[in-house]
Amino acid sequence: MSNPAAVAKLIVQQAVDCGVELVASLPDNWMASVIREFDADERFRHLSVNREESAVGLCSGAFLSGTGSLAVMGASGLMTLIYAITKINYTYEIPLTILATLRGAPGDKAKFHVSNGLYFLPALDAISLTYKVIDSSEKIPEIKSIYDHSRTVSRPTVAIFTRDVLRGDA
Q1: Which residues contact 61 (CB under 8 A, 6 or more apart)?
Q2: Can you give the CATH number for the domain in which 161 is found?
Q3: Among 3, 33, 40, 66, which residue's CB has the most CB atoms within a 10 Å radius?
């Protein structure tokens, strides 16, 4: 049975468990329930941003001030961040955890995301960006391990969600 709201609550609880206080997000229809949940939860300062680089800047600055943070965006948005991540986060060893979508994969009915299916994961591999694909609800607790790993290695990490997980179907 589909229940995106229940999945969103599980994801938000992981953020609480990580000590996250600030969430920067960009609009994304697959992440809509997650974004709404962060926005409604008073434990977080949720900031809607208009560019992915703004999310990187906010979350990187939050880390430097001792504040836990997450960035939430779609796959296309993450693809635009290769330079920002390698320049800011890799160079200055600033941890950053991003929650993103796995667009263009089997099951995605949007033809205009085919390129993401072809290049998204290979692009992340090319810059050695650590990620985990969250393809079942049982894997949602791995958000904490990917967040903690970011802090251990002082580099960005990504938790990538499939459509079925975000819909509550996996």
Answers
A1: none
A2: 3.40.50.970
A3: 33
